[in-house]
């Protein structure tokens, strides 16, 4: 064995006690120390109130973002117990706030929680550990109790501070600035969370207030997830007006399902277990899909809506245009992964399948007109699927998407390593020509599109693949589409939409984003899609050109140049300013003070020569790229429906209500 210089014994073993592990490794408990982790603290406290509501003991959850940077979360539940805990010798309140895995979520008896979203039971103690200060108030037994903490450590025992006729728990916490990258809790994020919780917990009020701005919002949905489905389908044409809704208990689990079909071509299924969103689905979604396919086929054959000789409708057919919310509540949820993205309880599949088959069949039998509309839509989807497959096979036959055949408009790069390859999607021959000349052809490919691509929000796959521009784009990507899609065959790991900074350019960009979001979502989810940020202005002050990518940056550049030159008399500058944009007298004076001889407002990429385009928009050392992400798929779906769907009044209203906030609109 080699000689070792340091000793390794019991003295080198660290034992972290109490809440020390949380402060040492906060990411293990809340996922990170950025904005997401900060808001996780709010969710952890609010979830305790939701658990009280699920247990039938609370009807209100209120969140206040205070002016001093703290957050207060309160509920009207039973109130955390304040009597002494036998095992710890401390009050139950202090125990749940200072001991990991302490709480009412483990026993499953009548006094605790039968169902809970906070599976691991570390929530409020973690919030305490990561707060510079926390104040807990309990309203119970006619009295108000209070205890305060600093960095997770009690500042004293529980005290009686008043009398009350109310019940509940109120936690005020100050996120520790030494732990978090930001301590600014975002009003919109909390509002969206509380909206979801109100939808999922029928008959419960949730509210939000922001002290600094006076903004307030409250949510109450008597219809629960049925109201949620209607909300998700806003702006869409429903196939049947009345959503299907059922809530039934099977063994110790409660299964809730709401469904409404819309005249669209995509499915939107959201699954929740104990109010925790499961974006990757799991056993509940598996049971739902199996039952849905079986019910629709059995009903359609029983009613003669599909002939005996015809093949069964597929799962893809019966899910086209469906919006569904599945909510299950069970005593011991088993999630796959730390983020609870997928429910793993095997028994839940059978529960959901049983409830769905029995009660959806009953709904169809009792509502024959709506049932016929649903089945007719699925039959039409099956016909379209056959047509789309034929169209796809025609378009992609002979391995067109495996790289043996590439579109003629594609100026490919020389490298064949996808990780190093970039594809610029450019509108128009002029910009495409400059991009081809200015690019680094070793790793940058250019695909020029002519005009505006098809709006895929309003068409099925067969018509989409008949569009020349979309077909060539999919061929260039190499992934194929629909059930043949394979992300591992993506030929470029950086795909960049590069359009003009005007109304037409924004429209083309939106059409392309719709295509990727609806038909190539894995490209977006993988972080491969970006939007180029060409400069708005060229400012010439001497030999070195200066580029500004926004009005604010232009003003900042002018300010820096004025400061650098020092204050001089504008009249001492003999030459006037050469401007290709509207400049008033005050602006001209500032430009003269800065020593700027020329200012140009770019109207489009075609105005730039190849060298300018490379330096400003394509050179990795200088360019700005905006990565496209789907932080909230529900919001994205609503925006695409609103902007690209068939509801003209909704789109008109959106444009009118946002008209005052538009910047850089070319007129």
- Let me know the number of strands: 26
CATH architecture of the largest domain: 2-Layer Sandwich
Question: Any idea what the CATH superfamily of the largest domain is called?
Answer: Histidine kinase-like ATPase, C-terminal domain
What name does CATH use for the topology of the largest domain?
Answer: Heat Shock Protein 90
Please, how many domains? Answer: 4
What does this structure look like?
The chain has 667 residues and is an alpha+beta fold. The protein folds into four domains: 20-219, Histidine kinase-like ATPase, C-terminal domain (Heat Shock Protein 90, 2-Layer Sandwich); 225-391, Ribosomal Protein S5, domain 2; 400-534 and 627-661, Rossmann fold (3-Layer(aba) Sandwich), CATH 3.40.50; 537-601, no CATH class. Strands 1, 2, 3, 4, 5, 6, 7, 8 and 9 form a nine-stranded mixed beta sheet that branches. The protein has a six-stranded mixed beta sheet with strand order 17-19-18-20-21-26, sandwiched between helices. A five-stranded mixed beta sheet has the order 10-11-14-12-13, sandwiched between helices. Strand 22 and strand 23 form a beta hairpin. The chain starts with 19 loop residues before the first helix and ends in a 9-residue tail after the last helix. Residues 1-17, 105-110, 398-404 and 662-667 have low confidence and may be disordered.
Gist?
The chain is of the alpha+beta class and 667 residues long. Strand 10 and strand 11 form a beta hairpin. The protein is flat and about 80 Å long.
């Amino acid at each position: 064995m080699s000689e070792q210089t340091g000793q390794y014994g019991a003295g080198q073993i660290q034992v972290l006690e109490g809440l020390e592990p949380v402060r040492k490794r906060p990411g293990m408990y809340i996922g990170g120390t950025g904005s997401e982790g900060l808001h996780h603290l709010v969710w952890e406290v609010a979830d305790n109130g939701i658990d009280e509501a699920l247990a039938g003991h609370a009807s209100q959850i209120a969140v206040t973002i205070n002016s001093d940077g703290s957050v207060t979360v309160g509920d009207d539940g039973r109130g955390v117990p304040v009597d002494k805990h036998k095992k710890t010798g401390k009050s139950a309140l202090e125990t749940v706030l200072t001991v990991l895995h302490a709480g009412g979520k483990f026993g499953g008896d009548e006094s605790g929680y039968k169902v809970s979203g906070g599976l691991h039971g570390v929530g409020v103690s973690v919030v305490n550990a990561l707060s510079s200060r926390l104040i807990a108030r309990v309203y119970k037994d006619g009295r108000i109790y209070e205890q305060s903490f600093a960095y997770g450590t009690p500042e004293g025992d529980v005290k009686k501070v008043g009398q009350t006729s109310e019940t509940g728990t109120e936690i005020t916490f100050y996120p520790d600035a030494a732990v978090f990258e930001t301590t600014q809790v975002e009003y919109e994020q909390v509002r969206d969370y509380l909206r979801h919780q109100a939808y999922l917990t029928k008959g419960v009020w949730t509210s939000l207030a922001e002290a600094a701005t006076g903004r307030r919002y409250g949510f109450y949905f008597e219809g629960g997830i049925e109201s949620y489905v209607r909300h998700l389908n806003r702006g869409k044409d429903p196939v049947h007006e009345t959503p299907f809704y059922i809530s039934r208990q099977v063994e110790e689990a409660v299964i809730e399902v709401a469904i409404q079909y819309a005249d669209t071509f995509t499915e939107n299924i959201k699954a929740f277990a104990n109010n925790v969103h499961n974006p990757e689905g799991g056993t509940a979604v598996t049971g739902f899909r199996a039952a849905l396919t079986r019910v629709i086929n059995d009903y359609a054959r029983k009613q003669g809506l599909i002939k005996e000789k015809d093949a069964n409708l597929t799962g893809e057919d019966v899910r086209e245009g469906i919006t569904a919310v599945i909510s299950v509540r069970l005593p011991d949820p088993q999630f796959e992964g730390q983020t609870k993205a997928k429910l793993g309880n095997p028994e839940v599949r059978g529960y959901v399948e049983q409830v769905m088959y029995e009660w959806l069949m009953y709904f169809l039998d009792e509502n024959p007109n709506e049932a016929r509309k649903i089945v007719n839509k699925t039959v039409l989807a099956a016909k379209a699927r056959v047509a789309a497959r034929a169209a796809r096979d025609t378009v992609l036959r002979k391995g067109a998407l495996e790289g043996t055949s590439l579109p003629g408009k594609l100026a490919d790069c020389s490298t064949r390593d996808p990780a190093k390859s970039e594809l610029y999607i450019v509108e128009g021959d002029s910009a495409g020509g400059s991009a081809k000349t200015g690019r680094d052809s070793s790793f940058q490919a250019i695909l020029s599109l002519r005009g505006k691509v098809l709006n895929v929000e309003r068409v099925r796959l067969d018509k989409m693949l008949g569009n020349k521009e979309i077909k060539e784009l999919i061929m260039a990507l190499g992934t194929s589409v629909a059930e043949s899609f394979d992300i591992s065959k993506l030929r470029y790991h950086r795909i960049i939409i590069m359009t003009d900074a005007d109304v037409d350019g924004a429209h083309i960009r939106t059409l392309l984003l719709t295509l990727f979001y609806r038909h190539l979502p894995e490209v977006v989810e993988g972080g491969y899609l970006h939007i180029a940020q060409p400069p708005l202005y060229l400012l010439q002050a001497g030999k070195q050109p200066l580029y500004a990518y926004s009005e604010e940056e232009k003003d900042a550049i002018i300010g820096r140049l004025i400061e650098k030159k020092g204050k001089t008399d504008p009249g001492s500058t003999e030459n006037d300013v050469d401007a290709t944009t509207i400049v008033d007298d005050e602006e001209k004076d500032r430009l003269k003070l800065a020593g700027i001889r020329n200012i140009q407002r770019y109207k489009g990429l075609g105005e730039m020569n190849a060298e300018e385009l490379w330096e400003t928009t394509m050179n990795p050392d200088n360019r700005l790229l905006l990565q496209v992400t789907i932080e909230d798929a529900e919001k994205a779906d609503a925006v695409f429906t609103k902007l690209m769907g068939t509801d003209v009044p909704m789109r008109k209203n959106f444009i009118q209500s946002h008209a005052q906030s538009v910047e850089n609109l070319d007129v």
